[in-house]
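Model: Ready when you are.
Researcher: Fold this.
Model:
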Amino acid sequence: MRLDNYFIKFTDNLAYLDLKETVNYDLLNDIPLPIYVSDIKDGIMTGAMADTINLENFLQGMLINIAADRDFLHNDQYKAIIAHYLPDVSKYTVSQAMDQSYDDINRSLLLLRAGFILNPSDNYNAYLYARLLWPMAFEVEDKFKDDFIRHALEVLQETISRDENFAISYYELGNIYSNLGEYVKARSYYNNALQKSDKDEARDEIRDKLTEINDNAEIEEALYFIGKSDYNSAIKKLTRILSARKRPDAYYYLGVAYQNINQYSNSIMAFENALDSGADFREVYNDYAISLYLAGREIDALNIIEEGLSLYPADPRLTYNKIQINLNLGNIARAKEDIDELLTYDDLSDEILYNLNVIKQQFNIERP
């Protein structure tokens, strides 16, 4: 598991001590005992003073060691010791992790991870482990981000496979997918959580989540229809959203849908509404200009492109479409200026670069 490569760094938070022979813990003799560094009291830095440390410190150290390094040399011995002193390890890790969660989130995560490794079938420990695990995806190196989310999803799905009525796992799956922007999936899991929850407070919280994401889920479904070229279904769904709330992104996608069925007057109106309601993304200017151009309003299209370029001056697609319109209008000199400028960009797509070269040959345009 790739996450093992992430958690191994937490072995740096452990120190290893040896008990004096006079200490009355036979199982703990003759092996190095891990202890979380923050648990070491002032002055207790050597094995000679290890007898003053509480047994629980060593048990937590062993759990953290197992979580951080699954292949550690003494893990089998640590597991035997933990089983001897902690007959219900999951109950213990849950309790200790919740006590620590506000002070040391990494420690809580490691304890729950140990509980999951030692007893993966305990649903509540697994749920808490996943609950702390997935938000870390947005704080760690990018190379581990997908692994954190994937593992959390797997852990939660396993809890549901063991108990299809385990409502809090459905809820947490909804939270994950909502944060990923997959609102249709999030809505489905929230609805399952709502059906399976029996506490009024929890149900109210889930309803709040559903209200929060419902429009996003509807837009996601509209995008699905657009992707499938089912533009009429997309228009119906987006119109229903806009009848309740004037969302700029919904207006934008409505314009895209109308544009694809050649209803340019409707698409122009939708793009105008998108801008009037606060759209702040470059695509709206580009697609708005395309609809104006296709409706025979070339000058209006150029004006919209200029408006977009005033906000996004380095956008190659806007400049490229400006070139195309000027060429169509016979403004060769203006098109040439923009071609020369665009060819200085380092991030041109292969498509735009190829098309510019075709245009230069077609219109006998050469760079100076």
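Researcher: Now this one.
Model:
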Amino acid sequence: MSLNGSACIVGAYEHPTRLAENLSVLRLHADVARGALADAGLAMSDVDAYFCAGDAPGLGTATVAEYLGLKLRHLDSTECGGSAPILHVAHAAAAIAAGRCKVALITLAGRPRAAMAEAKAAAAASAGKDGAKPARAPLALRPPDPDAPELAFELPYGPATQNLYAMVARRHMHEFGTTSEQLAWIKVAASRHAQHNPNAMLRKPVTVDEVLASPLVSDPLHRLDCCVMSDGGGALVVTRPEIARSLARPIVTVRGSGEAPRHGRGGDIDLTVSAAAASGPAAFAEAGITPAQIQYASLYDSFTITVLMQLEDLGFCAKGEGGRFVADGGLIAGVGRLPFNTDGGGLCNNHPANRGGVTKVIEAVRQLRGEAHPAVQVKDCAWAIASGIGGALASRHTAATLILERSR
């Protein structure tokens, strides 16, 4: 069953905080839920379906639904990391098409920055009492999760998010001649956009040289090749088309969607291909359009290499051509061929709860409504894509892709 036109996004809201020192995770979920519903012109009592992934505390969706006072006919807690909120839009469209609900609320929220600061303070206080820092076992010596048998073979090699993505970047460089300078242009584009976002964590535009001069985190990735870490969150409201038409808001219609996992397969894997190579074509086929018709792209940007991989796998350029596609401002609004992440993205704006997918959909909605900052608004934007990655590219991961159209 095609979901093309079966649902519309009528509400979108991004929490302004980047450090939630005095806000609980539940409060953040409530804040973004109220914000998205107010944006749509709807109330909590209108919601009959709720979607949230592993960022929901306690008993997950049930806990947040109770906190919000929701009366529901449908729940979805599909967990796939950073791509989950994007996938949830497609699942909401499917539930609406099946008649299981009429108004779906999707939320994401978290406070990893505040939690880290609190943990450091607690550790410092503990060390002050007995004079010694709390011991922390080396990664390779920690016992593997008994429910994840593959980890016993991976942990001795010390995998971490940054070195897994660095491995992908290095392989792409080896296979196709991609350079650190080309990757740096992705950060440059994000920073050019972030300067217009008053809530962005990093608002200062940077140059290619400044990206390359930043400290190496995991060769070949520099500090400025990595996303920020932030508290906060976001929410979306998805409804039946007839409800969307009754509201005094521009209509953003879900035209295409795709989702796919990509497995480690015990190491037998091509590091230069992501799961977006499957989710993207499925979304474009359902929408009935080609990448050439997309005017704005919201792409998951946990690292610069994450963006480059999606550009290739979604079909905006051939495999191996990503470096040349992004060089010399290829992603900068008003300059390049494909404006991307005009809010600054995860590289400069925020990466709430270490799951940046929801903000990708939010900025795509802003662009289609004509509500992005005037300096980065794409003129007459009618088609946009939102793509997310969950997990780690060099290991098992997921991808979710949405094709959105402004219908009114």
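Researcher: Key takeaway?
Model: DSSP finds 14 helices and eleven strands in the chain.
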